[in-house]
Amino acid sequence: MPLEIIRNDITKVHVDAIVNAANSSLLGGGGVDGAIHRTAGPELLAECRTLGGCEVGQAKLTKGYNLPARYVIHTVGPIWHGGKNNEEKMLADCYRNSLLLAKDYQFESIAFPLISSGAFGYPKDLAIKTAIAVIGDFLLKNEMTVYLVVFDKTAFMLSEKLFSSITQYIDDKYIEEHPDDRDNRLEERQILRELYIEEPLFSSMDAPITAEKSKRSLVDIVSQLDETFSQMLLRLIGEKGLTDAETYKKANIDRKLFSKIRNDINYKPSKSTAIAFAIALNLSLDETKDILLKAGFALSNSSKFDIIIQYFIEEQNYNIFEINEVLFAFDQILLGV
Ligand code: AR6
């Protein structure tokens, strides 16, 4: 998955490079910096001494020594002084310059901590927002697997406003029994039958708007009844005038999985993959339900995950990285592979 938010100790992550939230001396410190130096061993400090420090927002590379990561990218985040002292731009520079350095070295994977959000006092909800915006933007133009490693509890992650807006939405929609984990394909097949076969016939006897709607869906149904998920996806990509690369990047799906789907008309995606494509294609709620049905899934109000997806679609916010930020904060699986 191109951007994955994970909860872990960054010194344990196996990637081409981990990013260190250092200070401008590059000679070690507390927090994630201390943990990285402890695990890497004294050779890391010896190499850091040769670098001549680093300015805020810039990034420098060393080897990883005893770390599972092959390299360390050292960057220096801004100290939070209330937000009016260019902190956001400097923090964005940290992410951007680290990613560009990783790109120069043709790294395929990189892991970031939440830079500046510890000793340097940057509010965590704002820190994660900037991280996701810059990484997301980079991933729309580049191929790399990026991990955002969050160390502590997740409730802090969302701004109060977003958190309460989504909590309210969930409260309004959530049905008490919530069989999130069950394999609900069977039930969804039943829904599929009802939707595709029964609903149009019944609704055609209702008000004129409904009748027209169902006429349209009957035509669609007949012409697209045999269309598989993969065929529908490729058709929609064409209709929306998107390229394959634009689509899989916006879906947070890696190129290999996309080409598997492209080459296998009977490919059965996971629910999260199917939704990821619905988001990439900016589908409406009804269109999302249609494409999900092709994969044997439905959206239900008994699943928090499904409600959060509906929230974003209704808000017409199709930024998959922001959606994943919220899914992560609510302990749900993320969209993408
Ligand atoms: N893995 C992942 N994240 C971690 C880990 C870990 N092992 N340890 C801490 N964090 P901080 P800063 C999280 O203070 O704010 C140092 O002394 C932590 O929860 O490490 O950029 C440097 O030398 C927090 O969310 O970095 C500098 O002087 C995030 O990493 C100064 O601190 C960053 O916290 C840099 O301060």
List keywords for this structure.
binds ligand AR6; globular; 337 residues; single chain; Leucine Aminopeptidase, subunit E, domain 1; six-stranded mixed β-sheet; alpha/beta
Task: Set out the fold topology.
Blueprint: E1 3-7, E2 17-22, H1 31-40, H2 42-49, E3 59-63, E4 71-76, H3 87-104, E5 109-113, H4 124-139, E6 145-150, H5 160-173, H6 185-203, H7 208-224, H8 229-240, H9 244-250, H10 255-263, H11 271-280, H12 285-294, H13 304-314, H14 320-329
Parallel strand pairs: 1-6, 2-4, 2-5, 5-6
Antiparallel strand pairs: 3-4
Helix pairs in contact: 3-4, 5-13, 6-7, 9-11, 11-12
Bound molecules: ligand AR6.
Radius of gyration, rounded? 23 Å
Number of strands: 6
What is the CATH architecture assignment of the largest domain?
A: 3-Layer(aba) Sandwich
Q: What is the CATH top level name of the largest domain?
A: Alpha Beta
Estimate the global geometry from the Cα principal axes: globular
Helix and strand sequence: EEHHEEHEHEHHHHHHHHHH
The amount of beta strand, in percent, is: 5-15%
CATH third-tier fold name of the largest domain: Leucine Aminopeptidase, subunit E, domain 1
Description:
It is a single chain. The model is unreliable at 191-216 (pLDDT under 50). The chain has a 6-stranded mixed sheet, with helices on both faces. It has 3 domains: 3-155, Leucine Aminopeptidase, subunit E, domain 1; 160-205, no CATH class; 218-329, no CATH class. With 337 residues, the chain is α/β, with parallel strands linked by helices. Helix 4 links the parallel strand 5 and strand 6 (145-150). Helix 11 (271-280) packs antiparallel against helix 12 (285-294). Helix content is 51%, strand content 10%. Bound molecules: ligand AR6. Ligand AR6 binds at residues 9-11, 21-23, 29-33, 35, 77, 113-120, 149, 151-152.
